[in-house]
Amino acid sequence: MQAALINTELYPVDDLESPAAADWIRAIRAELERDGCSLLPDFVSPQTLAQMLRQVRRITHLGYPGPTEVSPYFFNYRLGEGEDLPDSHPLRHRGKRNLAQVAANLIPDDFLLSQLYRSDSMRGFLAAVTGKPVYRNRDPYQSLNISLMDEGGCQQWHFDSGDMVTTLLLQQPEAGGIFEYAPAIRSDENENFDAVRQVLDGDRERVRQNRLEAGTLSLFRGHYSLHRVTPVKGKRQRIQAILGYSARPNLYGDKASSILHYGPRVAQIEATTPRYPE
Q1: E strands along 161-203, which residues?
Q2: Which member of 13, 18, 58, 209 lies 3.0 to 4.6 Å from 125 by CB, making a disulfide possible if both were Cys?
């Protein structure tokens, strides 16, 4: 059942030891090394995608909007705190964020999206790509998200906390909502603030675009690549799932970040039935 959620005619996750799978994995690794991104169109079949979308539409009203102006380094809001930096510095930049997210604990276990996220097939596939064991994020709110953008919706230029970001586009908008990124603009050794500032100021030399279609799974090195989603145009919502995996077992996010991004209900839950480890 798990592998059946994936289009195994195109993507042989059910036989990762085969020569065909080995060639496919090598190609993905090469794309990630070269471009910082690998796209897998039709990762789920049209029938599976249609059912996923029907299920997800039942809970889109549960999305919480979260902050509307955010730093590119939003996974660490305190970065640069107390430093005397000019307003033009990337750490002082605030970009427009206009989207809502449905937290993991609001997505029913029997949804096909949940089944895909929890499947051994996905973890086995990602482990083959990374060459490391892969674990599901344990955070009760951040592990699996549904991102919703209505007309005018967008996401600011930013970096991610994790290196390998895995997303599945469930519904593309009529226009806009384009994923843009500047691959490998920073490294562990160099934040490269000057180059980051140039992109934030509108320089397009480093910027690439991915015009995603529904059903596409994206693997993206978002910790090192600055990226954003351009404003959505038209009445059709842009709907994307974010599947949280990590090379670290028992990974939780930050509780304060969960309260900020998913609303007061998280604080209420944590006050009565805490879900974060002490």
Answers
A1: 164-171, 175-176, 179-182
A2: 13
Query: What is the helix (H) or strand (E) element at residue 148, kind and residue range?
Result: strand 144-149
**Rounded to an integer, what distance in angstroms lies between the CA atom of residue 236 and that of residue 169?**
13
Q: What is the pLDDT of residue 1?
A: 42
The closest alpha carbon to 226, from 244, 240, 205, 242, belongs to 205
CATH of the domain at 188: 2.60.120.620
CA end-to-end span of the chain? 36
When the pLDDT of each residue in the chain is averaged and rounded to a whole number, the result is: 94
Nearest to 86 by CA among 6, 2, 194: 194
What's the pTM value of the predicted model, to 2 decimals?
A: 0.94
Residue 278 lies in a domain: no
Question: How many domains does the chain divide into?
Answer: 1
Contact 226, 199 (CB under 8 A): yes
For residue 160, the one-letter residue type is: D
Report how far residue 267's alpha carbon sits from residue 255's, in angstroms, rounded to the nearest whole number: 9
Measured CA to CA, the distance from residue 27 to residue 33 in angstroms comes to 10
Q: Exposed, middle or buried: residue 101 (CB in 10 Å: 0-12, 13-18, 19+)?
A: buried
For the chain, the 3-state helix, strand and coil shares in percent, each to the nearest 5, are 30, 20, 45
